[in-house]
Amino acid sequence: MTKFPKGFLWGGATAANQLEGAFDADGKGLSVADVMPGGKVRMQVLASNDFDWTLDNEKYTYPNHRGIDHYHHYKEDIALFAEMGFKAYRFSIAWSRIFPNGDETEPNEAGLAFYDNLINECVKHGIEPVITISHYEMPLGLVKNYGGWKNRALIDFYENYARVILTRFHDRVKYWMTFNEINSANAFPALSQGLVASNGAGDFTNIAQAWHNQFVASAKAVKIAHALDPEVKVGCMIIYATTYAMDSDPKNQLANLQQNQEFNYYCGDVQALGHYPSFTERFLKKHGTSFEKLEVTDEDLALLAENPVDYIGFSYYMSGVTDVTHEHEAGAGNMIAGVKNPFLEESEWGWQIDPEGLRVGLNELYGRYRKPLFIVENGLGAKDVKEADGSVHDGYRIDYLRRHIAAMKAAVLEDGVDLMGYTPWGCIDLVSASTGEMSKRYGFIYVDLDDAGKGTLARSKKDSFGWYQKVIASRGEDLD
Asked: Could you tell me which residues are beta bridge partners of residue 127?
């Protein structure tokens, strides 16, 4: 075989808080993403001791408030995805469109109606919706009034939210994921757990408790989905960063093993295998806490065991290197910064480009879990230049994606990995999660908007658009 299977889910991925805009339209409440300032200082502001989730329009800008106005352009955007040949489109539902403060008992019908229309538009074009239930955009009210995911009260709020959207959409949506990059809290709990220094991020007990509460909430969503329709598939979603020891020094090998376990597998083990891994106590002790400090009930553990996820969704952008025996210049990356790898090139943002690492990761994940895998994010952020004639020549993006698709092709066709699909990140330009900027572009489709929010919002095709169209049409055979 030289092609991917016929049912392979080729497509693209986005997140509501990065492209929808309309942040206060039709009854939507504020989310944590709505109060995260834009610009290169975003992460430093969120990590500061005095950040308290307050919206400050005089001090900061908030580009995601407008996004690329997908809320009003979704038909145009879905039509372009269909023209590329998408079989699937991964997007998220903005929780605060459905429950503006997060703790209401009845949903906002206008929010549900928007996603009805979006889903129907996908179905009309033969595109499978793949929905992330919570993608870095929990209602701000759940942070302000309850302290974020460290509070067990959020389990019930999430369960109510999940039940509403699963009940409403399961007849048209087969594939779901519960939490985006749930393991990102290992490095930065603000995005996924609503925890910053001012409300408890400095105590790892809170992070571990927040994870446990999310694990329980995820299991409840799996249970609800399977009760509605056993054919509905619910996955977890993690960041996966293949890691290598710098050399054969046993100290580095051991440190790399532990890094891999703690970052790549801790959350996946609980959600996919239904129980906490054997290294849990070592991991928590390393961060100054212990499992006995967590509020964990027998009912929780039974629920986790009985409702594991159906598949493993993950993002892959880069690999890392572990070295505890020498001093090295640190690399940059997606929530994890290891040692720079001398054998790899880097993106403009310092992320190490490693297609072979994707093949390694696919083999490691499938060997560990023996469940279908789904690459739901992968891509190259770059400063694209729009030429006078409107064209964007992004051969560097084509080269990046070509090499990663070739690696996953080898994992599937040669190594026997069960891979469901591939949805590259930011299939249309959107606001960056790490910097809140438009200039870090990932898409096949260029959106005329700059970091200052100026532009026409006009959509146009980059060179990569036609290339990816050809890849999909040939089921991955033609990568030239």
From this structure: none
Interatomic CA distance for residues 154 and 134, integer angstroms: 12
377 is catalytic: yes
Give the H/E segment covering residue 134: strand 128-134
> Residue 314 has which token pair?
């993950």
DSSP 28: P
Is 292 considered catalytic here? Answer: no
Q: What residue type is assigned to position 264 of the chain?
A: N
Catalogue the E-assigned strands of 43-125. 88-92
Active-site residue identified among 121, 137, 181, 262: 181
Write down the residue that tokens 């970091």 correspond to.
Answer: 451
* pTM as predicted: 0.97
CB 351 within 8 A of CB 276: no
Q: Give the single-character DSSP code of 144.
A: H
Kindly report, residue by residue over 322-365, the tens digit of the pLDDT. Answer: 999 987 666 555 556 668 899 999 988 788 999 999 999 999 99
Say which of 20, 121, 128, 377 is annotated catalytic.
377
Per-residue pLDDT tens digits for 121-165? 999 999 999 999 999 999 999 999 999 999 999 999 999 999 999
Rounded CA separation 107/161 (Å):
8
Paired tokens of 306: 């009985």
Read off the amino acid at residue 318: M
Taking the domains of the chain in order of start, what are their residue ranges? 9-473
Residue 298 CB: number of other CB atoms within 10 A?
7
Provide the CA 367 distance to its chain's centre, in angstroms.
Answer: 22
CA-based R_g, the chain, Å: 21
User: Could you tell me where the DSSP H helices lie in 370-419?
Assistant: 395-413
Residue type, 22: A
* Three-class DSSP category at 428: strand
Q: Is 409 left (phi over 0), alpha (psi -120 to 50) or beta?
A: alpha
Q: What is the pLDDT of residue 331?
A: 57
What the block records as the tokens of 272 is 């996919």
Report yes or no: 19 and 70 within 8 Å, Cβ to Cβ: yes
**Which CATH architecture fits 9-473?**
Alpha-Beta Barrel (3.20)
Across the strands, what pairs with 313?
237, 374
Q: What are the φ/ψ torsions at residue 469 (nearest 5 degrees)? A: -55, -45
Residue 466 tokens read as 């036609």
Of 16, 27, 176, the C-alpha closest to 109 is 27
In this structure, are residues 14 and 91 in contact, taking their beta carbons and an 8 Å threshold? yes
Partner residues linked to 175 by β-bridges: 130, 233
